[in-house]
Amino acid sequence: MLEENPLTKRVRLSKPPAFILDLSYFDVTLNKQSNYLSNKMKDNSTNPSLAIGVVIKDGSGKILFVEEARNKYYEKTKGVLGIPSGKVDWTEDIQDGIKREVFEELNIKVKPVGLVGVYQIVRENSQCMGLAFLAERLEPQITIKINRSEIRSYKWLSCGHVLNMKNNLRVGTKEVLKDYQKNITIPIDQVHFLNFS
User: What's the rounded Cα separation, in Å, for the pair 177 and 12?
Assistant: First the structure.
């Protein structure tokens, strides 16, 4: 059964889905003595990372897109738009990671409200689990101040406009926007941080 969420004007599931997102599989080792943080395991294919993307709307329904300042080893970023994104730090709560990444890149505070989608990204020598979230801007009157070492520029664009672009989008952006358009999110209170260390 679906119900309307008046705060976000999005439909949400009134009953939790019959699955649990168990990220323990992506912790190849939780052994504290594994020296994970110092070695970072050279073989990325056996140690997937956890990335987050954040859909942030303005008052007119446009979405915030950014052009990142630095190229990634797997893609160029100049002239390429995507939603604000980043990696969740080792043992960091996902919601804290969302807030940290957005604040580091744009100097604004957000509140995560729901999970839009889950994406497995496989490249030649690496694998990444990506989670896209919908977040509310907490202080819309605060001006965005981009961190120039992270972000080159930002734009507020409609979802439809971006989906009609033929190129110049970061990998996975169209998939996230298509899921966002379905107007269904898993409530943030069903995303749990389980730390057994």
Answer: 17
